[in-house]
Amino acid sequence: MADLSFTATVRPGRGKGASRGLRAQDRLPAVVYGPGRAALAVEVSAKEIPQLYLRTLGRNSLLTMHLTDEKGASASSTVMFKEVQREPVKDRFQHVDFYHVDPAKPLKLRVPVVLEGVPVGVREKGGILNHPTRALRVRCLPADIPAEIRVDVSKLDLGGSLLLQDCVPPKGVNFLGDPHIVLALVSEVEEEKAPEPVAAAAGPEVITAKKPAEGEAAGGDKKEAAKPAAGGDQKEAAKPAAAKPAAKK
């Protein structure tokens, strides 16, 4: 592995004003902490650290920190990137957290999962490979930290899945979490259905029938009902007119 190291100096100043002053001098405020150790404020190069972070991609890489204290004494220790704070507009580094690593104590960290091979269900049956779990939590000594967990998916058939319990961890590494977690699966391609025709929206009802005039029967009968004579007995039914005598010859 390439030498991943950087220099740091203990910084006496704290606060926002001191941090702005460091950045004006192409320096970055940083802190180093770890189990059994008090947090130590340091300053690092604003050019060296971003380049180092880019080389490691921030992936659990062990770094050698060459530290100079207030008295000018030098010492080296092993650390790793813990957190990077960036300026929101130009994305420049603003502050860095380093985690002190004890070579004799195991660490718990997340490691990316990489799928290898083309599944049978994809190659021969037109399925789709899904990758629902992108990283795994593991526990190991610093010397055994894997850069990634590679798993072979070439034997997965259509509808098949690969669980965490199906994988063998690298030497010195223990997987954490649910053993039934799905790392990869091959699913069928869903056929796109033609959209159903949309029924035309019903327009407003057009009434063409003539409304019954006032006094007409509700059933539409246009004949007027017989009206009683004015001033007459309304209870008396209308009588037919008397027949005229036949004309003499």
Task: Explain how this protein is built.
The longest helix has 9 residues. This protein is mainly beta and 249 residues long. Helices cover 9% and strands 34% of the residues. The strands form 3 sheets. The protein has a 6-stranded mixed β-barrel with strand order 1-3-2-6-5-4. It has a 4-stranded mixed β-sheet with strand order 10-7-9-12, with no helix packed on it. A 3-stranded antiparallel β-sheet has the order 8-13-11, with no helix packed on it. A hairpin with a 5-residue loop joins β4 and β5. About 8% of the residues have low confidence.
Question: How do you describe this structure in short?
Answer:
With 249 residues, this protein is mainly β.
Listing every helix as H and every strand as E from the N terminus to the C terminus, the arrangement reads EHEEHEEEEHEEEEEE
Structural class: mainly beta
Our count of domains comes out at 2
Note the gap between the termini: 147 Å
What top-tier CATH class of the largest domain fits best?
Mainly Beta
Helicity range: under 10%
CATH superfamily of the largest domain: Ribosomal Protein L25, Chain P
Mean pLDDT figure? 83
Q: Describe the biggest sheet?
A: 6 strands, mixed, barrel
Shape: elongated
- What is the CATH-assigned architecture of the largest domain? Beta Barrel
Number of helices in the DSSP assignment: 3
Spans of at least 5 consecutive residues with low confidence: 217-226, 228-238
Instruction: Give Rg in angstroms.
Output: 45 Å
Report the sheet-strand fraction: 25-35%
Strand order of the largest sheet: 1-3-2-6-5-4
